[in-house]
Structures are given as C-alpha cells and as structure tokens.
Amino acid sequence: MTKDDATWLDICYIVFAMIVAYIVYKAAETVGLQLGFAERYDEWFPLASRVCSIVGGGAAALWLRSDADRRDYHVSAIGEIRKVTWPSIPDTKRMTVVVVIVVAIFSVILTVFDVVWSKILQAILP
Predict the structure, then answer these.
(1) pLDDT per residue over 73-105, tens digit each?
(2) Which one, of 64, 46, 86, lies nearest residue 9 by Cα?
(3) Cα separation, 18 vs 79, whole angstroms
C-alpha cells in the first residue's frame, strides 16, 4: 500500500461520510416534518438533526474504515484500477460511432420484423 493509495482511500471515506451524513440529515428532516417534530420543537430540532447527521456520517465512515481486511481490499482495488489501460479519446470516439451504427442497424432490423409480424397477424386475425 502506497501513501498515495491510502490518501485516496481516506478521501473516499470522507466523501462516503459526507454522503451518509446528507442522507441521514434528509431522513431526519423528513421524519421531523411528517411527525410534527420540526414545528413542535423548532428551537432544537434543526440542531439535533444536524448533530445526528454528522454522528451518523462519522460512524458510517469509522465502521467502513475499522476492518483491516476491508481496508486492504479497498487499497488493492485502487491498485488494480491503476493498472487499467484506458482508451484514448480517438479510440473512444471511434468505438462510440461503432456502437451507434450497430444500434441503428438493429433498430432497423427490429422495425422490419415488427412491421412484417404485425401485417402477418392482421392477415391471420382480422
């Protein structure tokens, strides 16, 4: 495990914690509005929902980071992604054109089959 991989993994854990904190905040806000807590306890409910979201995000990131096997797996996944050879921009454009052409050809073939089968079925079942 290089220092760079560990740094990227820590950044990913922080981003994960922020996403979980946002989800917990929105869930607490929704539950508070649905159950009437937001109006009844308007002095302390916003602060409580923010604290719960920060604690929830931090707890999720700590749980994710706590297992050494899981951390090693994530670091090895980062190492494998570094080995990937990504296609160049011209190769990507060329492959995209090929995909668009193949999809167009198959859509024409399916349209022809659909029209033929609908005409056959209209002739058989008036």
Answers:
(1) 988 888 888 889 989 999 999 999 999 999 999
(2) 64
(3) 24
Count, residues in the chain:
126
List, for residues 50-62, the tens digit of each pLDDT value: 999 999 999 999 9
Only one residue has tokens 């009844």, namely 40
Contacts of 120 (CB under 8 A, 6+ apart): none
Tokens of 89: 């921009």
